[in-house]
């Protein structure tokens, strides 16, 4: 089973009409993806283990204790109607890289693990990188157990229904202590690469904020314009202000989710609740962007007699990947370009505990988290070669 055969076998799992994928944690599609991974790992003589948090590991061990291991891999879950590459490319490439290492006759002096992290997208339970956060202790297991999906099912119940023990959830310092470094290969999610493979420098700081615009619900026909307190108007001005502020600070800002109360065609809304996602190369730019958007929202709300409140729902500081490992990879790969990303990854979570680096494979359109996400097969095969070369260097010295 080479790269292309593995890709062909994995592709139909969880595929929906329209071409995207729905591979949510602890569903039938997730179970099929995990079974596919266990079979491919078994075919290669790797030892498959599941940790206490639902993360899978396939080990190519060396004699003696599992110490100073090189870890690679990624995730198999998806966003709703997500592309085929985000996550699976890293897992398939890791297995294909092992085949290449064996063809090259490489004899590792330390173990190699391929990880499949659980709930990386947070698509079902709302917290991204949940598996790696649990493993590293970045989230309280009590909170994780109680996270609910859209139907009110908890992470604990969903996990138990799929045959896993939710009582065992929590940090695993012993597992982490055996890992010397982590290298995650991932499809690039913008149009930042003009060669097949690059090395990540950093993950931009990013956060989520919630705006509540509270006005006065009223009749759309009988309420004079001058008598209105319509929260939709300052909301609309805030969306435009977000775009302008982001442009001024070389950030990105997105308002992609909005709840309108009562959401009627012939009613002036009483409340508009909207979420802002902002990311930038550094914390100062993110903070300055959000401050400007907030000021614009407050000014517009005041002009329309509407109250506005802003709450920060999450914030993640900048992640700078391990400089030594990053430079070693870039050099080993013959001077591969080094670039930052605006997307979060398990590698970002692991980087607080072990030297971590990422390889990106070119995305010709830049589309991601959508069915049209794509990478050319030739670039993916170059990615496999690059990963194998990077792993060979790390495994043999
Ligand atoms: Zn991903």
UniProtKB/TrEMBL annotation:
CDD domains: M20_bAS (cd03884). InterPro entries: Amidase_Cbmase (IPR010158), Bact_exopeptidase_dim_dom (IPR036264), Peptidase_M20 (IPR002933). It holds the Pfam family Peptidase_M20. Keywords: Hydrolase. It comes from the Bacteria. Belongs to the peptidase M20 family. This is Allantoate amidohydrolase.
């Amino acid at each position: 089973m080479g790269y292309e055969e593995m890709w062909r076998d994995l592709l139909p799992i969880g595929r929906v009409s329209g071409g995207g994928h729905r591979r949510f944690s602890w569903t039938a599609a997730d179970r099929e993806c995990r079974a596919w991974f266990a079979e491919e790992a078994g075919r290669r003589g790797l030892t498959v283990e599941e940790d206490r948090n639902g993360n899978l590991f396939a080990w190519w061990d060396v004699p003696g204790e599992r110490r100073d291991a090189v870890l690679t891999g990624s995730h198999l879950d998806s966003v709703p109607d997500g592309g085929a590459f985000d996550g699976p490319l890293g897992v398939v490439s890791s297995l294909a890289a092992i085949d290449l290492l064996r063809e090259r006759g490489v004899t590792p002096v330390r173990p190699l693990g391929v990880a499949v992290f659980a709930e990386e997208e947070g698509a079902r339970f709302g917290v991204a990188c949940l598996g790696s956060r649990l493993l590293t202790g970045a989230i309280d297991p009590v909170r994780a157990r109680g996270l609910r999906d859209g139907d009110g099912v908890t992470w604990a119940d969903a996990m138990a229904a799929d045959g896993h023990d939710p009582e065992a959830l929590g940090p695993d310092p012993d597992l982490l202590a055996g890992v010397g470094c982590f290298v995650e290969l991932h499809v690039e999610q913008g149009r930042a690469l003009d060669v097949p493979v690059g090395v990540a420098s950093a993950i931009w700081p990013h956060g989520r904020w919630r705006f509540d615009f509270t006005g006065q619900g009223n009749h759309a026909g009988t309420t004079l314009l001058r008598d209105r307190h319509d929260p939709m108007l300052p909301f609309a001005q805030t969306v435009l202000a977000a775009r302008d502020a982001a442009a001024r600070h070389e950030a990105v800002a997105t308002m992609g989710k909005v709840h309108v109360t009562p959401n009627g065609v012939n009613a002036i809304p009483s409340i508009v609740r909207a979420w802002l996602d902002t990311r930038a190369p550094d914390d100062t730019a993110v903070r300055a962007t959000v401050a400007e958007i907030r000021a614009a929202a407050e000014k517009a709300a005041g002009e329309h007699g509407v109250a506005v409140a802003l709450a920060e729902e999450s914030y993640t500081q900048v992640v700078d990947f391990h400089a030594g490992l990053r430079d070693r990879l870039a050099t080993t790969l013959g001077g591969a370009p080094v670039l930052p990303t605006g997307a979060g990854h398990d590698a970002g979570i692991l980087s607080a505990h072990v030297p971590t680096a990422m390889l990106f494979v070119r995305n010709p359109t830049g589309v991601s988290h959508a069915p049209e996400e794509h990478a050319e097969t030739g670039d993916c095969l170059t990615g496999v070669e690059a990963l194998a070369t990077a792993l060979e260097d790390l495994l043999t010295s």
